[in-house]
Specification:
Length: 535
């Protein structure tokens, strides 16, 4: 059932209308094919509007310089092969949104595929973003494709204002709708913005190189870019590298990053980071990732003696959690690389990975273990863990902060009680980490690193604690935070003598009230000639 139109231009309503049209259309394909068509259309809309904005800006600049932008020679020199410095792509006429929106309905499917082919041929960055024949293969009825294009045409920053993340909102809507039907094992998984922002705020990928071996739609990169802009304002100071196994998600990531003007290298194709590491031998300053939890189908015999785990042991075939850890450690800059990534809680104490975990701890690679609240994610309600690996725990200057020597210490945090922000209008119960909570977690972590901090006494019961390697050894290398963080037995705070007297008084008052009620009842019956017989 379509949502009732309130008459107000609402982004979610427009997106819902598009889905509603596709559901009713013949030949629209599977849910995933519908999603791919929609995301491709939205990409064309946004890249086209960005081009139009670039042309308008160029016209204004020429006029300011005393040049006539309508002069034929000026047009040939500046507009026929326009160059933009802000990541805007120069589009040939057939790929511009102004061409698409004015194409007659019966010709739209062909026009859209022509636009995609033209963009792929003219841009190395955008090559591989699209499936050849996306629209002509489905060949929607002229009326259906026209209605969808007209709906997408309404999605514009000119209509909605300079919303901070208009593009992200649109992508998030479809990713969430898809994620409801997916599992983490399938590799199509939506990581909420607040969780990504928490990782980025802790890791601080302000410059250098950033890598994500399971990059999905590119959310880690986009949130990091937003953080860079908020802190330093120079997006060119960071280069992103990634890999994604799922072809549709790989294409989506390339589109998403292109729209943001983020230079990227996602490899030549969609493929597994384990069996076809497309960045083999490269090391990175930062790694941020949310790899598939407890992935089963990751191993083949060629990985038995792989160089990524030659200093440890081969991770168990039954579960890829520690394969991800060692893969990321292999790619992490040996001198001072920092990695933040999510794993299922089972990785904290798996019995079949204890040798790898022991060596990670003894080699001083693990810096922090942070258990997150349940129900932050759309497709799972389990509590997951944020791991931070750090190749340099010896201290020194880092992003303008003087850090102390933290060798043989690990910071444990337990944020499971941070469920103060329920998300409304979701299909299932879901919580959100607030800006204040994200900053509080970052402050706990960064203060722990500070030269002013005594690591031996850094703790707040039920929230965090700095733990020495000796204590971790004593507990057989478990990384479960509750094994180290003090949890107050609130029963011990009770004044039992006072409580017993209070309970006795309440019970006495109840008995007294019952006797009064009984007496009043007997008197009432006597007044009308009856007498209550007592056993």
């Amino acid at each position: 059932m379509a949502k009732k139109d309130s008459g107000v231009l609402n982004l979610d309503n427009i997106l819902f209308n598009c889905r509603d049209i596709l559901r009713a259309a013949r030949n629209s394909g599977s849910f995933f094919e519908k999603r791919d068509m929609m995301l491709t259309l939205i990409f064309l809309r946004f890249i086209g509007e960005k081009y139009d904005d670039g042309i308008e800006k160029l016209r204004s600049q020429l006029i300011e310089q005393g040049l006539d932008p309508d002069n034929e020679d000026i047009r040939k020199a500046f507009f026929d092969d326009a160059t933009f410095t802000d990541g805007t792509y120069n589009l040939p006429p057939e790929a511009r949104w102004s061409t698409i929106i004015n194409t007659p309905a019966p010709e739209l499917n062909v026009a859209l595929d022509t636009a995609l082919q033209s963009i792929s041929m003219n841009s190395k960055q955008l090559k591989g973003c699209f499936i050849e024949g996306t629209f002509t293969t489905r060949n929607l009825a002229a009326n259906d494709i026209k209605k969808i294009v007209d709906e997408v045409n309404k999605i514009s920053h000119k209509a909605f204002g300079e919303e901070k993340d208009l593009i992200g909102h649109v992508y998030e809507y479809f990713l969430k709708e898809f994620a409801v039907n997916a599992t983490k094992e399938e590799g199509e998984f939506y990581t909420p913005h607040d969780v990504v922002k928490l990782i980025a705020t802790l890791v601080e990928p302000f410059d250098g190189t950033l890598y994500d071996p399971a990059c999905g739609s590119g959310g880690m990169f986009i949130q990091s870019a937003d953080l860079v802009k908020s802190k330093q304002g120079n997006l060119n100071s960071i280069n992103v590298y990634g890999q994604e196994k799922e072809p549709a998600t790989y294409r989506l990531a390339k589109m998403n990053l292109a729209l943001r003007g983020i230079s990227h290298n996602l490899g030549e194709m969609a493929d597994s980071s384990f069996t076809n590491d497309q960045h083999k031998g490269l090391i990175f300053d930062y790694i941020m990732a949310n790899p598939p939890f407890n992935l089963k189908s990751w191993y083949d015999d060629n990985l038995k003696n792989d160089e990524r785990w030659q200093d440890y042991v081969t991770p168990p075939e039954s579960n890829a959690n520690y394969a991800w850890i060692l893969h990321m450690l292999y790619h992490l800059k040996p001198s001072n690389g920092v990695a933040g990534f999510l794993l299922a809680n089972g990785a904290l104490n798996d019995s079949d990975t204890i040798e790898i975990r022991r060596k990670l701890i003894e080699n001083d690679k693990v810096e922090a273990i942070i258990v997150l609240p349940r129900e932050l994610f759309i497709t799972t309600d389990i509590s997951v863990t944020l791991w931070i690996l750090n190749q340099n725990k010896k201290g020194g200057l880092y992003h303008g902060r003087e850090q102390r020597n933290r060798e043989h210490e690990i910071l444990f945090m337990d944020l499971r009680t941070w469920i103060d922000n329920p998300v409304k209008n979701e299909a299932k119960k879901k919580f959100l980490l607030s800006e204040t909570q994200i900053q509080k977690a970052a402050d706990i972590y960064h203060n722990w690193q500070s030269v002013k901090t005594d690591g031996k006494n850094y703790e707040i019961p039920e929230l965090y604690k700095s733990v020495s390697i000796n204590e971790i050894r004593e507990k057989n290398y478990t990384l479960i935070p509750s094994k180290y963080i003090k949890f107050v037995d609130h029963d011990l705070e009770i004044d039992y003598e006072f409580e017993m007297k209070r309970i006795q008084k309440e019970f006495s008052d109840i008995l007294s009230a019952e006797k009064d009620s009984q007496r009043m009842l007997e008197e009432a019956f006597k007044g009308i000639g009856y007498e209550i017989k007592k056993n």
